[in-house]
Design brief:
rod-shaped, mainly alpha, single chain, 52 residues, 52% helix
Length: 52
Amino acid sequence: MNTEALIMMVTTQGVVVSFAVYFFYKVLTIKPKQEPDSFSENDDVVDRQPKE
């Protein structure tokens, strides 16, 4: 393999690995979104349906 091809291969692999590491780090450090609690609106409701 000639020098130009080796430089191109190492550069391409370096770019791909750096993108993968960056996005993997970003996924691991993202703050979770606060999701609405569907049960918090029903705290005052004792029974949903009357018992028969």
